[in-house]
């Protein structure tokens, strides 16, 4: 039987011991062996701290985000084989989708967050700059840098893929190398996914390592700066947290433990209401998804005492209709537990629950294409605790399977009190349409819950469900649930980052943070900042504008245009007792007038006003005052764009408006979208002519079969097609892929060298030459390029078919020609 190899210190290593046999949860057949015997854990941790940390921490947050996306795309292309293995863990297709593609989705989510919200630097400036001196020559702020250590991640058996990827999403994005230690059960699935992550070649050396089997003494070697993330039982988690190596060093510890999560049915949600039906469906789903092996599953069903019988009957019927068996069968809605060992453990907990509460449902399901003897199957079990404030076993014992307990309550006060008797939960849900009941119950139970999920008819269609942790929201909970916090959007990165206060002069803080600070040196040049591409803009680039004297007419006109007739702008007789001496200019007029002074009217790389972050008005501006503006590049944020958007970044500009007395009257931060420099040539005819001057009959191609003249005639044919001469008869790209191909015209990725044009002869031959020589071909090409420019000026709405990209408009044809010309000019070494 094949042993699962471990990936440590940059190589695949097989254990030297007998290992742990791993079985198919459905058939009982052995699948693999996990073994960590003989591994040098001390060396593995040291390798992560040195090689892994150096490589990851030197990357920018933006680049780490791009790294996550590339890994997720690589895995997504190979998902079929993961599903085939997932079925062996007892998971149905739906269970597997949550685990496998839910894990990929977490990588995609964090990649998106990074590229939208994180800087293109290896550190992250946290919060505003603090002025800590009277004259502003001494400032302070905070930066976040990757914690200098390695993260040991110990995962549970129920989610072999998502469990790994949800932890890696934050640690890798933070720049911290990780050692993944999955539960042996199901680790054969983790192993295959991990192999592909390494095979992708995207992750830098030392970024991740994998230990498949028993953890051995790996935690004996953790030290200051390292972190441990644990998912599993609270008992085991507490033991690990108290280890001398963990407790005695500055080791960060995050625990996400099992918890007795609850769901509360509202007092008004009687049979026949949408909420009653939603409640039954949600509870059934949470009892049967992953066969109840979810740390977020509903273990306590809290129901109004007058509805206990109705809920018991409806839930029993719903569970009766849940087909259990082989996950490969289309009929199956619930698979098996992950193995016989877990089955025995759940059965032991069921017997403990029986000692104090009544088992009111124990469906004797006939299995679909499976047997109870060979697989780890268990039918759903529903208990009733008729006195939940006296019988505590339902609040203390968790059977980690398809097991849950009904319990009655009288009012919102009792519902919240029962919810909190779980002593700390990952999630609690409320199913009700009574907003007062929801509000009262939720805030009272919030202190003992990591997440509260409210479900009713208004959000049911789009709801993600009680048991679904989301990357953008915190996953964790207080008390029994471990007190941990995972994911939660960018907040999830803070666990892996060191926060450091930085103090110094404005110029020093600007140098460290790469963000302009008020009072730092400005850089003036003849080129207007708005005429610079994103790559050309430097923090500190500044512009001093001409002055503008504000008039009474300005104030009156702005009132009329904006309909802002606030008395301070229009009625001089009403100013007694105010801060104003006379009618004052509108604050937003000052901001608008400032924009009029600093914008460049000429078309340039600035695409659009992206937003306004901060705006403060410090002194009134009256008619007769003269305002001048200082515009300064404050911060640059790289930005991932997709679809039909021009590749661009966000530039934050500091706007400082002063009056004739050099007093600051307004400070604002505006955001602009600024285009990135295109790597493709412009369609300027003179520029193209100049490039073609270097093309001769003897110029040879770096790839492909074309001669110089064939290349020019090929480009000319493309230009003629864009004029409809002749109109292309068809597009060779399938309709379902056409939008993706058209979107690709907008990005800055070069055309592939190995692409075979579908309209050329399939035997690889090239069309016959139509011009007498190269010079004639060049002249004809230039003439038709001139015609192209004029044609689309006269016919801006024209559209013509392209053989590959479908029907294209003026903008798309220009983008296509830019890429196409560049591709072939590079082929012949002209650029």
TrEMBL record:
Molecular function GO labels: hydrolase activity
Keyword 4Fe-4S tagged: no
Residue ranges of domain MaoC-like in the record: 539-639
Residue segments, region Disordered: 460-484
InterPro entries hit by this protein: Ald_DH/histidinol_DH, Ald_DH_C, Ald_DH_N, Aldehyde_DH_dom, DUF1569, HotDog_dom_sf, MaoC-like_dom, PaaN-DH
Protein name: Oxepin-CoA hydrolase / 3-oxo-5,6-dehydrosuberyl-CoA semialdehyde dehydrogenase
Keywords assigned by UniProt, alphabetized: Hydrolase, Oxidoreductase
UniProt keyword Oxidoreductase present: yes
Domain Aldehyde dehydrogenase: 12-499
Species assigned in the record: Chryseobacterium jejuense
Pfam families per UniProt: Aldedh, DUF1569, MaoC_dehydratas
């Amino acid at each position: 039987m094949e042993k699962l190899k471990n990936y440590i210190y940059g190589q695949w290593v097989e254990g030297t011991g007998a290992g742990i046999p791993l079985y198919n949860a459905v058939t009982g057949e052995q699948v693999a062996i996990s073994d960590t015997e003989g591994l040098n854990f001390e060396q593995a941790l040291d390798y992560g701290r040195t090689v892994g940390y150096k490589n990851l921490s030197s990357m920018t947050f933006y680049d780490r985000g791009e790294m996550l996306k590339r890994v997720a795309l690589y895995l997504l292309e190979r998902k079929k084989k993961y599903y085939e293995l997932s079925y062996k863990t007892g998971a149905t297709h739906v269970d597997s989708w949550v685990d496998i593609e839910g894990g990929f989705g977490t990588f995609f989510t964090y990649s998106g967050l990074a590229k939208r919200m994180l800087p293109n630097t290896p550190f992250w400036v946290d919060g505003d700059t603090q002025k800590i001196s009277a004259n502003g020559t001494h400032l302070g702020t905070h930066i976040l840098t990757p914690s200098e250590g390695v993260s040991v991640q110990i995962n549970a058996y129920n989610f072999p893929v998502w469990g790994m990827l949800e932890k890696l999403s934050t640690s890798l994005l933070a720049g911290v190398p990780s050692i993944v230690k999955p539960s042996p059960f199901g680790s054969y699935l983790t192993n295959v996914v991990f192999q592909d992550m390494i095979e992708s070649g995207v992750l830098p050396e030392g970024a991740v390592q994998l230990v498949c089997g028993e953890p051995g003494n790996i935690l004996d070697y953790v030290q200051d700066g390292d972190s441990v993330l644990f998912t599993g039982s609270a008992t085991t988690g507490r033991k690990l947290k108290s280890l001398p190596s963990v407790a005695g060093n500055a080791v960060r510890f995050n625990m996400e433990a099992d918890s007795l999560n609850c769901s509360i049915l509202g007092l008004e949600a009687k049979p026949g209401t949408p909420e009653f039906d939603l409640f039954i469906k949600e509870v059934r789903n949470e009892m049967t998804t992953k066969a109840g092996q979810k740390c977020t599953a509903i273990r306590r069903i809290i129901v109004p005492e007058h509805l206990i019988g109705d809920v018991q009957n409806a839930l029993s019927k719903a569970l009766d209709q849940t087909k259990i068996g082989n996950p490969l069968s289309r009929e199956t809605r619930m698979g098996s537990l992950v193995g016989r060992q877990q089955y025995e453990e759940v059965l032991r907990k069921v017997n403990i629950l029986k000692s104090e509460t009544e088992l009111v449902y124990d469906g004797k399901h006939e299995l679909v294409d499976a047997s109870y003897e060979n697989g780890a199957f268990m039918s759903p079990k529903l208990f009733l605790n008729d006195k939940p404030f006296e019988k505590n076993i339902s609040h203390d014992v968790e059977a980690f399977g398809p097991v849950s307990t009904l319990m009655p309550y009288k009012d919102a006060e009792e519902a919240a009190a029962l919810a909190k008797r779980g002593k700390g939960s990952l999630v609690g849900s409320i199913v009700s349409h009574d907003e007062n009941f929801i509000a009262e119950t939720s805030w009272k139970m919030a202190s003992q819950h990591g997440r509260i999920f409210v479900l009713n008819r208004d959000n049911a269609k789009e709801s993600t469900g009680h048991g679904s942790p989301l990357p953008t929201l915190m996953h964790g909970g207080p008390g029994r649930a471990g007190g941990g916090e995972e994911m939660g959007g960018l907040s999830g990165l803070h666990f892996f980052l060191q926060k450091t206060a930085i103090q110094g002069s404005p110029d020093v803080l600007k140098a460290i943070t790469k963000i302009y600070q008020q009072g730092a040196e400005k850089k003036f040049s003849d080129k207007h900042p708005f005429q610079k591409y994103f790559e050309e803009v430097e923090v500190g680039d500044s512009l001093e504008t001409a002055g503008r004297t504000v008039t009474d007419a300005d104030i009156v006109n702005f009132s009329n245009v904006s309909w802002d007739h606030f008395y301070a702008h229009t009625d001089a007789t009403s100013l007694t007792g105010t801060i104003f001496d006379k009618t004052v200019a509108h604050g937003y007029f000052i901001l608008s007038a400032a924009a009029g002074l600093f914008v460049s009217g000429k078309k340039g790389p600035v695409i659009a006003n992206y937003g306004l972050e901060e705006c403060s008005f410090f002194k009134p501006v009256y008619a007769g005052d003269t305002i001048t503006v200082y515009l300064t590049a404050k911060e640059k944020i790289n930005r991932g764009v997709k679809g039909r958007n021009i590749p661009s970044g966000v530039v934050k500009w500091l706007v400082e408006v002063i009056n004739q007395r050099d007093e600051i009257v307004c400070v604002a931060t505006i955001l602009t979208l600024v285009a990135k420099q295109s790597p493709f040539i412009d369609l300027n005819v003179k520029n193209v002519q100049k490039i073609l001057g270097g093309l001769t009959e003897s110029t040879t191609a770096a790839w492909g079969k074309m001669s110089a003249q064939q290349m020019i005639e090929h480009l000319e044919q493309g230009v003629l097609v864009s004029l409809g001469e002749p109109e292309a008869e068809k597009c060779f790209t399938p309709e379902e892929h056409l939008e993706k191909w058209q979107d690709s015209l907008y990005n800055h990725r070069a055309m592939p060298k190995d692409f075979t044009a579908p309209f050329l002869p399939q035997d690889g031959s090239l069309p016959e030459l139509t011009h007498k020589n190269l010079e004639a071909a060049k002249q004809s090409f230039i003439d038709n390029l001139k015609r192209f420019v004029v044609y689309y000026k006269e016919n801006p709405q024209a559209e013509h078919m392209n053989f590959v990209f479908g029907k294209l408009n003026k903008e798309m044809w220009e983008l296509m020609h830019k890429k196409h010309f560049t591709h072939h000019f590079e082929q012949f070494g002209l650029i």
